[in-house]
């Protein structure tokens, strides 16, 4: 269980409002402007401070987003950055807020979009542990315009892929040039939503761990055109 400072002992009206939402209202519940004003009788424009929380990834809905809410009602849907902590107050350095991070992770099934790694998993054949993070991917659309998309990437795939622009027509071209067998493998990965390490790759990974002598033995046993 997370230790939070009490909203009463916290400085700064936005931080107070954030903690009040968590501690008094609770995620998923609704509150009224009157109740908010009552909790903070000495703070001018407390509802404005609550609105500001949205910049930090907090989800607070009004009847504009959710028509089932009354005109004075709001719903505290989910929390974002811990604005009461000095370091977290600013939007994260990459400008991706907690809500975007969460949405992207959910959409990507909590896996690296490039290699399918899950957090904490060790990369095959190594002791390196996968960690997931967000990356901005510039995607060139068929109409020639660029769009920035957030994707989940692991530490290993992220290295080197940072300034990559994915050109969709070019990618399609390269797919066209694959052999029918390769295209079929690709189609299966796309359908499964992850790259499945085929038998050949597993054998290759195991082969690489062998001593030179054993590698020679395997190599000698492989005749071309088998
Ligand atoms: Zn990866």
Record the strand order, biggest sheet. 1-3-2
Tally of individual domains: 3
Beta strands, count: 6
Shape: elongated
Q: Give the C-alpha Rg.
A: 25 Å
Key terms:
alpha+beta; single chain; 3 domains; about 230 residues; 9 helices; binds zinc ion
What does this structure look like?
The chain is an alpha+beta fold and 226 residues long. Helix content is 37%, strand content 15%. It folds into 3 domains: 7-88; 99-169, no CATH class; 178-220, no CATH class. The chain contains 9 helices and 6 strands; from the N terminus they run H-E-H-H-E-E-H-E-E-H-E-H-H-H-H. The strands form 2 sheets. Strands 1-3-2 form a 3-stranded antiparallel sheet. Helix 1 crosses helix 3. The longest helix is centred in the first third of the chain and has 13 residues, at 13-25. The chain starts with 12 loop residues before the first helix and ends in a 5-residue tail after the last helix. 17% of the residues are buried. Zinc ion binds at residues 112, 114-115, 117, 153-154, 156-157.
């Amino acid at each position: 269980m997370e230790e939070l400072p009490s909203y009463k002992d916290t400085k700064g009206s936005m931080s107070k409002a954030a903690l009040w939402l968590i501690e008094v209202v609770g995620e998923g519940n609704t509150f009224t402007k009157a109740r908010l004003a009552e909790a903070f009788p000495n703070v001018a424009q407390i509802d404005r401070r609550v609105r500001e929380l949205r910049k930090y990834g907090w989800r607070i809905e009004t009847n504009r987003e959710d028509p089932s809410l009354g005109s004075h009602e709001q719903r505290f849907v989910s929390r974002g950055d811990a604005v009461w902590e000095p370091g977290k107050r600013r939007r994260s350095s990459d400008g991706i807020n907690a809500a975007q991070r969460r949405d992207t992770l959910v959409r990507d099934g909590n896996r690296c979009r490039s290699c399918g790694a899950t957090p904490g998993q060790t990369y095959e054949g190594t002791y390196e542990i996968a960690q997931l993070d967000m990356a901005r991917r510039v995607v060139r659309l068929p109409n020639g315009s660029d769009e920035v998309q957030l994707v989940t990437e692991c530490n290993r795939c992220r290295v080197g892929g940072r300034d990559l622009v994915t050109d969709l027509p070019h990618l399609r071209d390269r797919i066209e040039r694959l052999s029918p067998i390769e295209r079929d493998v690709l189609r299966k990965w796309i359908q499964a939503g992850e790259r499945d390490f085929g038998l050949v790759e597993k054998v290759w990974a195991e082969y690489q761990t062998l001593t030179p002598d054993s590698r020679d033995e395997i190599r000698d046993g492989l005749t071309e055109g088998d």
